[in-house]
Amino acid sequence: MQIQGEMIIGGKAVRGEGGTLHALAAATGEKLEPVFGGATHADVDSACTLAGNAFDSYRGLPDESRAAFLEEIARQIVELGAALTERAHAETGLPLARLDGERTRTVNQLNLFAKVLRAGRWHGAIVDTAQPERKPLPHPDLRLRHIGLGPVAVFGASNFPLAFSVAGGDTASALAAGCPVVVKAHSAHLGTSELVARAIAVAARNTQMPEGVFSLLIGEGNWLGEALVGHPEIQAVGFTGSRHGGLALQRIAQARSVPIPVYAEMSSINPMVILPAALAARGEQIARGYVDSVVVGAGQFCTNPGIVLALEGDALDSFCSVASGALKAKAATTMLTSGIHRAYCDGIDRLRRSPRVTQLAEGQAASGPFDAVARLLRVDARTFLAEADLAAEVFGPSSLIVACRDFDELRTVLRRIEGQLTVTVHLDDGDRAMGGTLMPTLERKAGRVLFNGYPTGVEVAYAMVHGGPFPATSDSRTTSVGATSIERFLRPVCYQDVPDALLPEVLRAANPLGVERLVNGTPVR
Ligand code: NAP
């Protein structure tokens, strides 16, 4: 499959006539071939209208057909072979081995949602049978299931050009929910986006999906995303990126004559707490694992451990010294875009402007213009609490160690920080009481609480929560990774006294789909 510089609109390759744009090589900033044609307002309208027209026929398909579509997308992505990972490597600077792993994750995600569809629990079917004799009033027959919200706009993330982009988790979960998808390609990986969009178009053709089930739009400037979110056919938005971008799109969605939900994953500094017994017994080992977690993927992970909280003293000093030694050996790595590189350098400058922040160590020097040099910094908790800027996300391979005078101060820092995707605690037996005291705060702060591990590495699974209170995400009730991410794009419908033949199959008396339902409060298959 060739990259032609085209969009996919309703299954067809379309050359945009709204100006031209290039993908850039992450390592050098040089233009990559071919030239892309940018979308026009008419293209946005066409993609969204086709998506709106496809909605009823697509959501009306049997679960098995949508599952087969998702599996076929996975197969087509594998078929793209090395061309996909090589292009993604050129556009993002991410190593080929990492991109191979990311492709596997993307494929597994699509296959997971095929399984979710076949299991049938996503319908959330509930039956309350009629009680005509009930006094003083009869109880009607009530049946509930979930349906898709409608066409979903997806904004691919820069840092996962496959797993959080065109055929990533947002697209897979929306398609599973019966929602057509219109993707706005991330400008940092246009060619990768086109290749994956072409694979989806082939899969849609091979499985006879309705025209309009999927489109990819490419363009320069915020107008495209704004027009997409503002289009009346779009019913929900999936976004991963900056706090600024996510909030801008949320404002547009709220200002529409019919407001729609924006599921935006934005900003998180993922605190890692090291309790005293663990610090004393395993400080060295934790320090090495922590530094690996800080620098992996040039630190461009939303779950990067941006701050460490521990009690000041000799054990913390030795931890800092081991972590510094480990970090100094880490090579500088190419960042995703020149803009992200600039934001990283600005973030480090901002931290270092605070007189009480000390830089403990820096990694190997940069060799390319957009290489990030790893940094380790330290500050006392009083300063951290007093200077709000120190708690802002610095997207890249850096972390700030916050030394607390005592456990109360550590708990105060945790209570004051903003909402997070993750909070990690390292504890040993002697720390159990402190760990227990922290639990209520940890639950309130983060979507995922993990012990004796590192937050980078997000398993795609049934119980995963990759979400959290604002500003980690715009809606803490949801996750963007894992089986339950489908719930973002569903809404419940109740059917009252509807004749059996008119009910959706999943709610009929004979339960022809054989799915588990809650019948009068009891699970029944
Ligand atoms: P971004 O600038 O927020 O862009 C994400 C997507 O949204 C892109 O497609 C972008 O369009 C679009 N967009 C952004 N602002 C918009 C607006 N006001 N109106 C319409 N569309 C808009 O994120 P990024 O480029 O991936 O990275 C920039 C920063 O985001 C990083 O430095 C980091 O701080 C943060 N980030 C966080 C995470 C996370 O998981 N928490 C992940 C990645 C990045 P264009 O493609 O045209 O720019």
From TrEMBL:
Residues 22-313 form the Aldehyde dehydrogenase domain. It comes from the Bacteria. Keywords: Oxidoreductase. InterPro entries: Ald_DH/histidinol_DH (IPR016161), Ald_DH_C (IPR016163), Ald_DH_N (IPR016162), Aldehyde_DH_dom (IPR015590), Aldehyde_DH_Superfamily (IPR050740), ALDH_KGSADH (IPR044151). SUPFAM superfamilies: ALDH-like. Pfam families: Aldedh. This is Aldehyde dehydrogenase (NADP(+)). It comes from Paraburkholderia guartelaensis.
